[in-house]
Design brief:
heterodimer; B: alpha+beta; 10 helices; 14 strands; oxidoreductase activity (chain B); CO_DH_flav_C (chain B); oxidoreductase (chain B)
Chain lengths: ~150, ~260
């Protein structure tokens, strides 16, 4: 079947099987390997992307479900060579170690930056429940998100 | 996943027409269904994507009621429900990504024994409106992953009567976010309701607790009340005895946090 959607601001089309997962299309179809597959069972959040502006797990979504909608991956977050303020905050606060979970953390973090009114630590931690980091890096990640929420106008 | 066809009808009538038997499944958010398909726990010949049907969208008020479209994601309900207990319940489901994708109707149709929404519909005395009839929450859940829905019957919306006050408390499984036990307490126009989820194959009401709260809607009214262990679930997450101990604790916690709501 044919799917057409907006990917990082660009109109794209692809031929997929009905049971093709969105993450498989992104990685194998479009070469966007920044979206990681950690567990493939919906637990770890490494595959988090945005669907119509909200963080979702691309290993628990069919490519067909994205048809006609808008998808944002980690590759589409920076504008040109300029990091998004949240990415800059991750770098400044050393909010990553091995980096495997980082794209998913940034994509969930962007959802929280967009939807939380204040940098409340409990709310940020609740919002990161679906993203696992195995380098025990949660604290600087929470701080980077809190900083970015605090800085938004 | 086994191969399947994917259909996206444009209306409820088309969706129900496309569902020609048990071999086909409706797909809403897919947060439980796709995980089940990966594990090959189900082998539908086709998925019928109903997530974008206009009839299943939106939250609106009716006289004394809140009507929530079946395809409303948990996150939207958490942000927009005018019943604070329902917003709180929806905001506690799973994790951020699941709440953004998973839907009210999908959760009810799946009838996981640890569904938060099961406590919501039973505790608030909601009606489940389908393409063909209205089902009272009390008649909806028949067993573990088993509901009163007929093959092909599609949930369109859920109608909640506005409670005078209500609150939900749960002990989250730290890995999944599912309630090990969840308790919703509500004072409604029809009386007190106490509904429990996660503790047995189906959600259930605690009439003894409800009677105790009729005169005094406070944690103290539940002093000394216990729950029989016999019918409660035991699994790797909790023993039946632990669940029995949690129920009164969570009922009191819900009363303490929502008593003045």
């Amino acid at each position: 079947m044919r799917v057409a959607f907006t990917l990082n601001g660009r109109e794209v089309e692809a031929e997929v099987e009905p049971n093709t997962l969105l993450v498989a299309l992104l990685r194998e179809g479009f070469g966007l390997t920044g979206t990681h597959v950690g567990c493939d069972t919906g637990q770890c959040g490494a595959c988090t992307v945005h669907l119509d502006g909200r963080a979702v797990k691309s290993c628990l979504i069919l490519a067909a479900q994205a048809d006609g909608r808008s998808v944002l991956t980690i590759e589409g977050v920076a504008e040109g060579g300029t990091l998004h303020p949240l990415q800059a905050a991750f770098r400044d606060r050393h909010a990553l170690q091995c980096g495997f979970c980082t794209p998913g953390m940034v994509m969930s973090g962007l959802d929280l930056v967009a939807h939380l009114d204040s940098p409340d630590e409990a709310a940020i931690r609740h919002g990161l429940d679906g993203n696992l980091c195995r380098c025990t890096g949660y604290r600087p990640i929470v701080e980077a998100i809190a900083q970015t929420i605090g800085e938004k106008g | 996943m086994f191969p399947f066809d994917y259909l996206r009808p444009q209306s409820v009538a088309e969706a129900v027409c496309a569902h020609d038997g048990e071999e086909r499944r409706y797909l809403a958010g897919g947060q439980s269904l796709l995980a089940a398909l990966k594990l090959r726990l189900a082998q539908p010949s086709a998925l019928i994507d109903i997530a974008r049907l206009p009839e299943l969208a939106g939250i609106h008020a009716e006289a004394g009621r809140l009507v929530v479209g079946a395809a409303v994601p948990h996150a939207q309900l958490a942000a927009r429900s005018t019943i604070p207990a329902l917003a709180q319940l929806a905001g506690s489901i799973g994790d951020l990504q699941v709440r953004n994708m998973g839907t009210l109707g999908g959760a009810l149709a799946n009838a996981d024994p640890a569904s938060d929404h099961a406590a919501g519909v039973l505790g608030l005395g909601a009606e489940i409106r389908t393409d063909r009839r209205v089902i009272a929450a009390a008649d909806f859940f028949l067993g573990m992953f088993e509901t009163a829905l007929e093959p092909g019957e599609l949930i369109v919306s859920v109608s909640y009567p506005l409670p005078r006050r209500a609150s939900y408390a749960k002990v989250r499984n730290p890995a999944s976010g599912y309630p090990v036990v969840g308790v919703l307490v509500a004072e409604t126009d029809d009386g007190i309701r106490v509904a429990v989820t996660g503790a047995a194959s189906c959600p259930f009401r605690l009439t003894e607790f409800e009677m105790a709260l009729a005169g005094d809607f406070s944690p103290a009214a539940l002093e000394g009340l216990t729950v029989p262990v016999d019918d409660l679930s035991r699994d790797l997450h909790a023993s039946a005895e632990y669940r029995a101990a949690l129920i009164p604790v969570l009922a009191r916690r819900a009363l303490a946090q929502g008593g003045g709501e």
